[in-house]
């Protein structure tokens, strides 16, 4: 709190951390191996086989993937969650609500999720968050910092000096553009 | 003991009030609670977080093919496995 983060910021951090942990648990539980691979314990929902709500949610996720990952394929973890509409809806809505910029910038939140994925050794989610951060412009240097945070002990907490937390051109924020908070300027998007 | 101050249920309004009421109704039915659980009070600082978690909790605990008892058994087993006393 001395660093200027208030109750709302700490609550956001708590939510982001818990969400990242839950996603890492899901990805590891269904044995997802890598972002590029298709190996999994549970078959993902085949394209076009969901009910209208599932298809609409998957389309929303594809839209996010286009902006945040630079390709329209829905990551397999969401296609697996799509097997249960309630689970898909509530998990995706949670992702959107928590990862949007609030008291903490969206990019910093994504760095936190990467740190959690690293700390829990969830390979799939490490690749997932790294892909989002790289697409948003994070460099090797930035990623090394996330890695240092997730493996450091409290005694040797590294300095934040030089770690930019400026959301620039890339979209880390999963909110679809112009759908929420219409009219508010969101930079170049 | 918590690291953040918990929201006082008597002072909240709007969305947070609505979800606190709904959560207390569920907890009263499920385990006879007389006041809202502290875990929801911790989330009360952010209506978005509270709503997202409440909806996800409902989706996980109230929908699907498992019975409420089966769900609580699994939740308890996971809490034990994670050494989560709460």
In total, the number of domains of chain B comes to 1
Overall number of strands of chain A: 0
Please give the largest β-sheet of chain B.
Answer: none
Helix vs. strand class of chain B: mainly alpha
What's the mean pLDDT score of chain A? 83
Q: What's the story with the biggest beta sheet of chain A?
A: none
The level 1 CATH classification of chain A is Mainly Alpha
Query: What string gives the helices and strands of chain B in order?
Result: HHHH
From the alpha-carbon coordinates, what is the Rg of chain A to the nearest angstrom? 16 Å
Q: What's the β-strand tally of chain B?
A: 0
Any chance you could write out the topology, listing elements then pairs?
The complex is a heterodimer of chains A (189) and B (86).
Chain A: H1 7-29, H2 52-68, H3 76-81, H4 85-99, H5 106-119, H6 123-136, H7 140-151
Helix pairs in contact in A: 1-4, 1-5, 2-4, 5-6, 5-7
Chain B: H1 14-31, H2 38-43, H3 47-62, H4 68-81
């Amino acid at each position: 709190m001395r660093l200027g983060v208030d109750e709302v910021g700490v609550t956001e951090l708590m939510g982001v951390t818990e969400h990242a942990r839950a996603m890492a648990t899901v990805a590891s539980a269904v044995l997802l191996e890598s972002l590029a691979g298709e190996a999994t314990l549970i078959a993902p929902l085949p394209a076009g086989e969901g009910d209208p709500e599932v298809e609409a949610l998957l389309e929303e996720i594809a839209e996010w993937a286009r902006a945040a990952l630079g390709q329209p394929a829905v990551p397999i973890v969401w296609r697996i969650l799509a097997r249960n509409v309630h689970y898909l809806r509530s998990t995706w809505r949670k992702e959107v609500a928590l990862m949007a910029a609030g008291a903490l910038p969206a990019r910093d939140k994504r760095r936190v999720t990467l740190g959690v994925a690293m700390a829990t050794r969830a390979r799939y989610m490490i690749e997932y968050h790294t892909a989002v951060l790289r697409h948003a412009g994070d460099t090797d240097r930035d990623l090394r910092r996330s890695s240092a945070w997730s493996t450091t002990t409290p005694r040797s907490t590294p300095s934040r000096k030089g770690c930019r937390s400026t959301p620039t051109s890339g979209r880390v924020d999963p909110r679809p553009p112009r759908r929420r908070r219409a009219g508010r300027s969101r930079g170049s998007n | 003991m918590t690291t953040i101050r918990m929201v006082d249920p008597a002072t909240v309004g709007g969305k947070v009030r609505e979800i606190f009421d709904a959560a207390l109704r569920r907890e009263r039915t499920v385990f006879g609670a007389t006041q809202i659980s502290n875990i929801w009070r911790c989330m009360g600082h952010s209506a978005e977080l509270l709503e997202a978690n409440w909806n996800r909790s409902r989706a996980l605990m109230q929908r699907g093919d498992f019975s409420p008892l089966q769900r609580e058994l699994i939740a308890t087993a996971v809490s034990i496995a994670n050494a989560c006393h709460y």
